[in-house]
Amino acid sequence: MAFGSRMDGCGNFMKYGLFIINLIIFIGAVVIVGLTIWTIVDKSFANELLGTNLYSGAIYVLLITGILISLVSCFGCFGAIKEVRCMLMTYFIVIFIVFVTMLLGGILGYVFREKVGITMRNAMVSSIPSYGRVKSVTNAWDETQHRLQCCGIYSYRDWQNNIPDSCCKEPVEGKRQRCQLMFEQQNSFTLYQRGCLNVTVDFVKDHAAVIGGAGIGVACLMIVGMIFSIALFKLIE
């Protein structure tokens, strides 16, 4: 019995429902790709201070899966409209593999989120003696302190007698004053008072939550897409 004459209303619902779901999945995947690229390019200045590769690993996993999902969702839309069984089955298998991969990336991100405070503190403590001698560490500290408006691990006192200029607030006239002099004078108006540990931990957790939330939303749609693809596969003869 042909698809058009068997459960026509239900079949059309599955057909166009799968098309719409895949369209939404495509948009969600593009959002995930955009968020991960934004994180990699603009928000990776503190990587040297994280003390682990779990965060960057999870971001790259989500980037790759986001690209794959955007391609597979187009494949699913075409398979639904053309009512091709082999395409629907291929779509289901690929989307399931991508779903598992995304789940792995989410688990990595969650594990890192729980350990970020401890690993970052250890990395910051061990990196302070390398400031000024190792370029990557120096740049990471300067960029983190300047962009997050913080200084040291818990306060500017962590730098002792070698406080960086990046701990200085920008004065009104636009010329940065020497932080060492400000440190000696204990000037709270020109030195950032907050320590970088808690500020950076909150920063990383907030961005991980945004990307994780987008990933969870797309993953839920992927489950619905798999259900619809199997149902449509069984209706097509």
Automatic annotation (TrEMBL):
<dbReference type="InterPro" id="IPR000301">
    <property type="entry name" value="Tetraspanin_animals"/>
</dbReference>
<keyword id="KW-1133">Transmembrane helix</keyword>
<feature type="transmembrane region" description="Helical">
    <location>
        <begin position="208"/>
        <end position="233"/>
    </location>
</feature>
<dbReference type="GO" id="GO:0005886">
    <property type="term" value="C:plasma membrane"/>
</dbReference>
<dbReference type="Pfam" id="PF00335">
    <property type="entry name" value="Tetraspanin"/>
</dbReference>
<keyword id="KW-1015">Disulfide bond</keyword>
<feature type="transmembrane region" description="Helical">
    <location>
        <begin position="58"/>
        <end position="81"/>
    </location>
</feature>
<feature type="disulfide bond">
    <location>
        <begin position="151"/>
        <end position="167"/>
    </location>
</feature>
<feature type="transmembrane region" description="Helical">
    <location>
        <begin position="16"/>
        <end position="38"/>
    </location>
</feature>
<feature type="transmembrane region" description="Helical">
    <location>
        <begin position="88"/>
        <end position="112"/>
    </location>
</feature>
<keyword id="KW-0812">Transmembrane</keyword>
<dbReference type="InterPro" id="IPR008952">
    <property type="entry name" value="Tetraspanin_EC2_sf"/>
</dbReference>
<dbReference type="InterPro" id="IPR018503">
    <property type="entry name" value="Tetraspanin_CS"/>
</dbReference>
<protein>
    <recommendedName>
        <fullName>Tetraspanin</fullName>
    </recommendedName>
</protein>
<keyword id="KW-0472">Membrane</keyword>
<comment type="similarity">
    <text>Belongs to the tetraspanin (TM4SF) family.</text>
</comment>
<dbReference type="InterPro" id="IPR018499">
    <property type="entry name" value="Tetraspanin/Peripherin"/>
</dbReference>
